Amino acid sequence: MQMSGAQMVCEAIIAEGIKTVFGYPGGAIMHVYDEIYKQDGFEHILTRHEQAAVHAADGYARATGEVGVAMVTSGPGFTNAVTGLATAYMDSIPMVVISGQVPLSLIGTDGFQEIDAVGISRPCTKHNFLVRSLEELPRILKEAFYLARSGRPGPILVDIPKDITVEVGEFDYPESVNIPSYKPTYKGNARQIEKAVDAIKKAKKPLLYIGGGVVLSNAYELVRQLAEKTQIPVVETLMARGVMGAKNPLLLGMLGMHGNYASNMAMSETDLVISLGARFDDRVTGKLSEFAKYADIIHVDIDPANIAKLVDVDYPIVGDVTQVLEKMIPLLDGVNPDRYQAWREILKRYDELHPQAYVDSDEVIKPQWVIERLGELVGEDAIITSDVGQHQMWAAQHYPFDRPRQWINSGGLGTMGFGFPAAIGAKKAYPEKTVINITGDGSILMNMQELVTAAEYKIPVINVILNNHFLGMVRQWQTFFYEKRYSETDLTFQPNWKALAEACGGIGYDVTTKEEFDAALEDAIKQDKVCFMNVAVNRFENVLPMVPAGGALFNMMLPPKIEKDGEEK
Amino acid sequence: MAKSTDERRVISVVVMNESSVLARVTALFAGRGYNIESLTVAPIPESDMSHITIETKGNAKVMEQITKQLHKLIPVYKVIEHEEMVEKEMVLIKFPIAENLSDIAALAAAYNGGIVNVGKEMVVAQVADEPKRVKHFIEAAQRYNPCEIVRGGVVAIER
Ligand SMILES: Cc1ncc(C[n+]2csc(CCOP(=O)(O)OP(=O)(O)O)c2C)c(N)n1
């Protein structure tokens, strides 16, 4: 069929089954927006900033497992999108970003709103394309979606010069792709899997180490099966929260810099790490030479470059976690779960010794209380997004995540400003679910303009601001490592949160007591409008346990057992 | 475990011939802090691919990451970390015409080369040989006051 480049873009999005696109128009992409106006195959959400459009597409992708799509114009539109691309890249999120570019004849002339998008985005995309002719546009669009979702997923940029979007030509959307140089390995090597199974059968203190790759591969049922069958204890990374389910007795919790005592001790004492879709991030390992020092390591990852990048691996298995576990689990038929009984008991004692606990207060709201209360009130039903800081860690530690894709946050890049737009994306994907962004008084301001988007499109996201009048996480490091010199982290000056929300078409709540919190949450759910819940929490609360950067996992700063509130700890 | 030390290595990368593919390869080295000693690239005849030869330095672990990361680039078809290879490099050296031309010609001939151009003021000699021998040739040429030296970078092929 004959059509313009702009129409081809829309047709490809429809053919890929995408229901919602987030974006922001401008000169170079206007022809595409003109086609968006005419079509009704997908909905377009106008965010108020390109960064938010990309984060929203990202939130949509993380919530659904589908490809998220965002659209931006050339120059400043594209540069605003870069943080979103980098965020998705670091967490391997399937995404296609379409950017307008100046006409072919102007490329390289420093034309108005020209920027080398392909050059800038090279290190933060899985792959990118500058379209050079209309003929190659359908193929490139097909490849973009395919690359985004296959192998180790990631964001793909398609940069389209304006003249190509008006040009008319034949649209023949390919059914399949053929990229001879791109052949991801899905099926782990059978011999290696057998060897790994033997190692599991011989181990005395094995530990399952679960990462975000399990979520990306939708392998959580299999992971639960594997743990159930073998009764091997489990630690989750920040990105894997929810995989095992909060109530699973085999789950020790999160490990790493803010992991709990039992999880970090388990990693320090285990004799066999079974790593599934985890990449040994430095926030997880702490000091590498002390990490899992007594253990052999089985490492399952779809990306060969991840394997043995940081630690020496004894059983490397390149493949998709789902396909590897499908082969591995039946081979474990002979394993006797009693074998690891003594090990489980040691870990249980560790957990009793230093549980993931905090000291509550009646005078001031503790941030951990807010998270636990949210868990009690909306628990399994809600999707939780977060920004970056202390609130993110408290959410990861204390919220009873019960299923994967319930917890959406920027792990690899740690992007403040991610949570709110990501929540908008998740809520578009699941309008029937309560979507709560747990955020800080610093982070929320980084994309607060999205109040307007959420109000206009009636996307009732609840922003719970754990307001400590600080850039809390930085303040915490200043407390511990800079002798309390609170350089540029004091946020005593604050906007009027309630008025701010209302000015943008939402609603606001100021919460200073536990009763007010319950009432505000109930009302927010009933009102069904985008809102800010400004919750005044204890200013000097610290996230504990904490492994100081570069320290060994077993050297944790632990929470005080009995403690008065206030600064002096 | 044996202590791994930085060694000179030569890698061939076969890539799909598409726009900015060389930029992707070199950006990977720059972005990850790997070092490029020399780089040559040309299309492979009768194909839609190009052959990039990279001379680099690193220990075994770094080399493993380099090859794996190169492999991850979508247009990269093949990465060969050479062990048994024939390698050659070319160099052009310009000398003042007043130097002893027959000595220079004899020296270049000893390294698989010769004088390839004689001008009014300058003479140009060319040598194509193993990189180590090219280095020796450049050292030996110093006494004839070379005024410009251009090395071509390594090309390699498995034996
Ligand atoms: C875009 C961006 N800028 C800076 C940082 C560094 N940073 C990490 S946590 C943090 C403080 C966050 O403060 P707030 O949102 O109030 O959350 P809190 O830690 O108080 O819960 C900062 C500045 C970051 N992660 N992202």
Number of separate domains of chain A: 3
Which word captures the global form of chain B? elongated
Number of helices of chain B: 4
CATH superfamily of the largest domain in chain B: ACT domain
Rg result of chain A: 24 Å
Largest sheet of chain A: 6 strands, parallel
Description of the structure:
The complex is a heterodimer of chains A (569) and B (159). Chain A has 569 residues and is of the alpha/beta class. Helices cover 37% and strands 16% of the residues of chain A. Chain A is globular, with a radius of gyration of 24 Å. By secondary structure, chain B is an alpha+beta fold. Chain B has 2 domains: 7-83, ACT domain (Alpha-Beta Plaits); 86-158, Alpha-Beta Plaits (2-Layer Sandwich), CATH 3.30.70.1150. Chain B contains 4 helices and 8 strands, in the order βαββαββαββαβ. Chain B has helices at 21-31, 60-72, 101-110, 131-141; strands spanning 7-16, 36-43, 49-58, 76-81, 85-96, 113-118, 122-129, 148-158. In chain B, strand 2 (36-43) and strand 3 form a beta hairpin. Classes of the chains: A alpha/beta (569), B alpha+beta (159). Chain A binds chain B through residues 118-119, 122-123, 126-127, 130, 132, 147, 179-182, 303-305, 308-309, and chain B through 15-16, 19-20, 23-24, 27, 31, 64-65, 68-69, 71-72, 74-78. Residues 387-391, 414-417, 440-443, 466, 468, 470-474 of chain A line the site of thiamine diphosphate. Chain B: Residues 10-84 form the ACT domain. Chain B: It catalyses: 2 pyruvate + H(+) = (2S)-2-acetolactate + CO2. Chain B: Belongs to the acetolactate synthase small subunit family.
